[in-house]
Amino acid sequence: MSPRVVSEGDRRRRRPTKQGAVLSQRLIIDTALRLVEQHGADALSVRRLGIALGADPSALYRYFRNTDDLLLALADEFIGRSLEGWEATGDWRTDLRAMGLRIHHSYHGQPQAALLVAHRTTGRIHETRAVETILGILRDGGFPDPLAVRIYHSFADQALAFAAQDAAAAALPPAAAEADAEVWRQAYGPLPAATHPHVAATYPLLAADMSGSGYPFALELMLTALETLHPDGAGGGRRDR
Amino acid sequence: MSPRVVSEGDRRRRRPTKQGAVLSQRLIIDTALRLVEQHGADALSVRRLGIALGADPSALYRYFRNTDDLLLALADEFIGRSLEGWEATGDWRTDLRAMGLRIHHSYHGQPQAALLVAHRTTGRIHETRAVETILGILRDGGFPDPLAVRIYHSFADQALAFAAQDAAAAALPPAAAEADAEVWRQAYGPLPAATHPHVAATYPLLAADMSGSGYPFALELMLTALETLHPDGAGGGRRDR
DNA sequence: GTTTACACGTCAATGGTGTTGACGTAAGCT
DNA sequence: AGCTTACGTCAACACCATTGACGTGTAAAC
After folding, report:
1. pLDDT tens for residues B135-155?
2. Which residue of B lies nearest to A134 if distances are taken between CA atoms?
3. Which residue ranges does the record assign to the HTH tetR-type domain (chains A, B) (predicted)?
4. Do A168 and B164 touch (CB under 8 A)?
5. DSSP string, A86-142
6. Domains delineated in chain A
């Protein structure tokens, strides 16, 4: 008896489905990504993916052990894409900022896969390269090793944590996402100054600010703090007091 | 015809189930939290919750409109518990720090539930009180409204994002957690200086640092940055209103 | 105390999900 | 040309959230 899933290298018989599609891991991953992009995260089910491929849903189990296996493959795919094409400028502020925003942005683009991978340590090639790059920015930027390592840890965790957080929001079923957005109008708007003076006083500002991600400003705050920790005093004289 | 779900105030008839349980929102939420605590986030389904309560699963729909409604109630309960007993000192640095660590800590203590809940906006009583409290710390601390709001947003998101991130790590099944820890030794330890000079140079520091959470340091960085943004320059004193 | 209205627990059914075992066809080797 | 067996298909299982109909028995009204 043959194992249910055959590794891609050993695959031989390319047998078309009833509807004429010739399956492969590549085709399945690409189709799944397209499905998620076009119809949202919850459109990705084995049954729907089967239909989109023109194959019986159970055929997928010839290519992936289970849906988790498939989603990890998806995640790995976009990690690769998210690191593509970045180049260092040599200024640690600029480079850290770009790195953070890039991670955050690319995870946000594929929330479903992001959710799965954001809190795992993969140790794979793209991840190790990212670690190396960020550490390099900090050490070449003049931070001593112990500080560079602590900063790396907080910087990377913060980028991933915010990315996962925002991805989770983006991956909510439409109804729940709508509800979360409405909450700021319906629950916080009517709060009276008597019981919630600070919310009442700042409500318009709040409602406007909360619609976006808190990450960009958090990143700027971190960069600001790093300037004061930099061994060269004010960190190149950008900040004054 | 009566609406399917009756608001808690208007509820009158307390009719025991076949198995003798007398349902209420309180009982349901407490049971759900216990279920998640004991058997993990995946154990929370309407059917299983019904069984745990000793009631037909569909009885839940007399108390919550749907599972999302139940989840939000769960989330708010969680927020409430994590802020129980906190008291302001009047110093915004101390208070913000305490607030952040408290959120982070309580989520870490209930990782399974935290995962389920960390990225929702509930708009309910405990959450609004938390928002009011944090905004109050910032405004009473002397930050002008537009800045206070931006800071609130990034501060709260940071605490929640890290909490979810660390909860996710703590909630991994033992086997997967072991595997993730091993990755740092097996994948990063052997990286040669030729291809990954920065990782190789700092590996002992890295391995030691990565075992903890990045949040405490990230929080300190944020507080440091806030000092420089404070209108009183070095952020010396408390401002009265 | 008796009556009455209806709240709410229960049942059954719907349409979704991931996953597996059995089966036979046809693909690609010899 | 014949043989093996990979792999696409089918059917079934166990679970999921949710809803409409129903009737019991509680608590209010009298």
Report:
1. 999 999 999 999 999 999 999
2. B198
3. 22-82
4. yes
5. ----S-HHHHHHHHHHHHHHHHHHSHHHHHHHTT-----HHHHHHHHHHHHHHHHTT
6. 8-65 (1.10.10.60), 86-229 (1.10.357.10)
